[in-house]
Every structure is written in structure tokens, then in C-alpha cells.
Amino acid sequence: MIYFNLVHFKLLNLERGTNEGNICLKEVARVLGSTFEESYISRLSSDHFAVFTQGDTAVENTKKAVRMFKESHGNTHNISCKMGIYIFEPGEDFYVETALSYAKIACDSIKRNEKKDYAEYTKELADQVRTTEYVVSRIDDAIKNELKHAAVL
pLDDT digit string (tens) for 41-53? Predict the structure, then answer.
């Protein structure tokens, strides 16, 4: 499963208009269709796509799609594409929603990283996300406790 996100797409729509945005989306669809020929491709929302493909070719085809998009559209419009990959073995406990969620987590992990175009969902990434979520969910409590402790002193 591959989750695809166009970075700075909303800015393209604002600066050049939705017609140019539509041209860009059509180019993404063309690139994905030609790169992942034997796969299921779906536009999820505004600038997000999903590709349901074979795991053994996912990374290679992802690199190819990123390169093709940069050459055809991305370099001229300051748009980059980020892809998150989740490779899985289908089984009884497999859920498409979970696979897509994991691919999105991988994609989100590199959204602001200019040096990476794709990331794979791994156990290490899952642990990092859990740790971040834990800290973020408890930061307000930590600040309140620190303020209470400071007030007592």
C-alpha cells in the first residue's frame, strides 16, 4: 500500500488557480497509472492518492513515480510528492484501512524532509510515532504540574 501526498499543492491552487491544480492532479494520475500499471489507484481527497500494489515492486516503482513527477510537473511548480509505503502479507487479520493508515504515517513522517521522497512503515517508525504521541498528549499535564511545583517553591 502506498499513500501519496502532494506537498505545496494548496499553494499552487492559490497562486495559479484551480485550473492549474487540476492539470497537476491529472499529471499525478498519469504518472501513477503509467508507473503502477497492474495496481489499483485511487484519489482519496484533494492532493492525496492511494496505490494498492505488489510489495516486491513498491519501492522501485515509487522512486520511478517521484522522478517522473519531478521531471514533468514538480520542478516547475515547486510541488514535491511524498510517498509512504506499507508492505504487508495479506491474511485473515488484514484490513485495508489499517494498511492505508500505516502508509499515511510513513508519508507524514517525511512531509517536511526535503531530502526524502518516500518512507517505509517500520516497527521503528511505529515506536517513534507512539513516543511522540505519548509526549504530546501529556505535555499539558507536565506544564501544569511544573507550574504547581514552582508555585509551591
Answer: 999 988 999 999 9
Report the alpha-carbon distance of residue 121 to residue 123 in Å, rounded.
Answer: 7
Amino acid 116 reads K
By the 8 A CB rule, do 50 and 62 touch? Answer: no
The confidence band for 102, taking pLDDT boundaries of 50, 70 and 90, is: very high
Which residue pairs, CB below 8 angstroms and at least 24 apart, start in 68-71? 68/31, 68/34, 68/35, 69/27, 69/28, 69/31
**Claim: this prediction has a pTM higher than 0.85:** no
Q: What are the cell numbers at 39?
A: 495496481
Contacts of 85 (CB under 8 A, 6+ apart): 1, 2, 58, 59, 62, 103, 106, 118, 119, 120, 121
Count the neighbouring beta carbons within 10 Å of the beta carbon of residue 63: 14
Q: Which residue has the cell 524532509?
A: 113
Q: At residue 79, does pLDDT exceed 90?
A: no
What pLDDT, on a 0 to 100 scale, did the predictor assign at position 152? 58
- Interacting residues of 11 by C-beta distance below 8 A, sequence separation 6+: 78
